[in-house]
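User: Here's a protein and a ligand (shikimate-3-phosphate). What would the complex look like?
Assistant: Let me lay out the input and then the predicted complex.
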Amino acid sequence: MSKEKIPHVALVGHMGSGKSTVGPLLGKLMKCNHVDLDVVIANQAGRSIGVIFEEKGEKAFRDFEELALKSKISNQEPLVISTGGGIVERTANRELLKEKSFVIWLRADTETLVKRVGNHPLRPLLKEKDPLEVFFELDKERAHLYQEIADLEIDTSNTEPSNVSEMLFDSLKSRLGLNHE
Ligand code: S3P
């Protein structure tokens, strides 16, 4: 699909980078629906992400995640899609995102990420671990993958979600030829 005709906008980045807060705000500005893949997965599985990890393991979660992405990205109407931080781990997901959406990489410095997510009990990857170490490792594994698929990147460290969404909307208007005046 040519980038001019892309219907979807996908937000990628680490846990705590702002994907789930910025997504709905951007959807509102773009006048299109927003979906959060973690919410889709939890609804479909009938259990929280934490429980899926506990009961079925990470591989099963990644399978759910891949299915949820495939299903939402084939939506005919444009969507803003907030992904989970690990969506880029599978090549198939990266290819799909790259082909079928305009990908925005939300970045933040590690200190900010740690402050935002702390020891969040709902995030299995952080459970009983030092968040600084987790983000250090995740950044090594994933930063280049986010970079590889990103059409646009923005640092959210010192910016309110509403301002991030407005900046993104401005940028999308010119880059995707959106007209919502
Ligand atoms: C994960 C990030 C989480 C969620 C799951 C795994 C990851 O989403 O998908 O806990 O692998 O980084 P958020 O990035 O929305 O926290």
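Summary: The mean pLDDT is 92.
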